[in-house]
Amino acid sequence: MAGGQKAKGKMEEAAGKTKEAVGRTVGNERMTAEGQANKKKGAARQAKEKTKDTFKH
């Protein structure tokens, strides 16, 4: 289960980076902000799963 959540976090983070870059390119501040939020959400999900793995072992 943890592996799936880590992968989901990486996908969210990558999608956020892409959305942020596109938003900056076209000058859309809302899209840029949404991309940043997605990146942070993905990073937080990955950190949570890493913490869970640390306490398992």
Q: Could you describe the largest sheet, including whether it forms a barrel?
A: none
Q: If you compute it from the alpha carbons, what radius of gyration comes out, rounded to the nearest whole angstrom?
A: 13 Å
Order of helices and strands: HH
Number of H/I helices = 2
**Could you list the spans in which at least 5 consecutive residues all have pLDDT below 50?**
none
Mean pLDDT across the residues is 90
- Give the number of DSSP strands: 0
Provide the helix percentage.
over 70%
Instruction: Report strand %.
Output: under 5%
Distance between the termini: 16 Å
Shape: elongated
Classify the secondary structure makeup into a structural class: mainly alpha
Describe the structure.
- The chain has 57 residues and is an all-alpha fold.
- Helix content is 93%, strand content 0%.
- It has helices at residues 2-26, 29-56.
- The longest helix has 28 residues, at 29-56.
- It is elongated.
